[in-house]
Fold these 2 entries.
Entry 1:
Amino acid sequence: MNYNNSVLIGNWSEERLKKEYEFKLFLRKRDRRELLLQRSRNLFSNLLKERPLAISGTFVLFGFNVQVVASDMPVRNNSTGAKTGLALSSLVNERQVDYMQNINAGCLMTLSPITTPCCRNTFVVLSAKDENMHGQKMNYGDEFILKAENYGDPQAPPLYVRYTVEGVPGPADRMPISLSTTKDSSCLWTTVPLLPRDRLEGLGSPIKTGAKLIIRNCVADKSLCVMNQNWMQTFFGPECGVTCRNYVDIHGRHTAENIFTLVSDVETKTKD
């Protein structure tokens, strides 16, 4: 006689009951959409849902969606077809999938080759002086806040791109920029023209959408930069770290790691 799970004797009976329980648990999770595959698909759907950029003319305007793009940085392990261009994006990692289906406080910021405007890489640019300002041109030197919209939960508290200032020197691969519900001075950013000769006269002039510029954190007084040596594998493919650090050449000019553009309208996106 061959013993198997159909023989209700000793351990075989326990194994059969265990398999029945696991199957019922699987069906319950499936009906509640709690399976890892279902949650992963829901996460992709929420974070990669396209968000059309407003047609705002040729200048960056307060109150509109923008993308922060490192336009001169090459893409590694390219699977998107683009040769250059990395967009500032929110990241939900594999350990957070079980309890997060949308962006949330604590999500790290990365630079992604996926530059199609979507929930994870578009931000509302707000004036630090008056957050209700809408439609006014943003000038070089103006302090601003990048607000991330949680479209999956309109009742969730607002999230802001925040740079955590290091008290002591940390590891070179530390990623200190994340989303936070805390809105303080560490969330303040400003811009300066790319070329040193234009910085004195350029301060106070409107920022053209797609123009190459330097973005600085107002507290750290350091420039937003690409961590080109810190690439990682994520749910969304290979992505690069981002921090605040000054990269300059022997002539005092910022290198490609510090060069960004603010993309805020459809026309500029089409040209890219």
Note: The two ends are 72 Å apart (CA to CA).
Entry 2:
Amino acid sequence: MEMISSRVALGIAAGVCGTLFLGYCIYFDHQRHSDPDFKKKLHERRRAKKMAASSTKRTTVFPDMKDHEAVQRFFLQEIQLGEELLAVGDLENGVDHIGNAVAVCGQPNDLLNLLQQTLQPQAFHLLIQRLPAVAPRIVKATPAMQEEDVE
């Protein structure tokens, strides 16, 4: 008899806990939707995702490696775009852009040390994994060496 009543009590307790949890979820959802900034935040989040998706569709055009100013502009642009995408939460594309910047950097070891200290650990590990794939893209994008380039 005692065993049956403990099972019933356990069942009732589980039912009460489930009802309380469901009530809390409904309350929280109502509070979230009644927030005056809810739609604004939702639109911003969707716009950021759309921007991130559109930036992945474009292919990266590497600069002429002989033109120092073009390389510097490309480097700064890729770092900035990568940081923006990481801030939005787009880890994959952000790391790709930062990887492009590291690939054209004159001192990649110093930059990698700085990035190791500033990036999230998972972003830095993903960057390290993707760096070997960036070099072939630069080689493809760089025009073949001319005879006057060889000494």
Note: Helices lie at 2-34, 38-57, 68-88, 91-104, 108-118, 121-141.
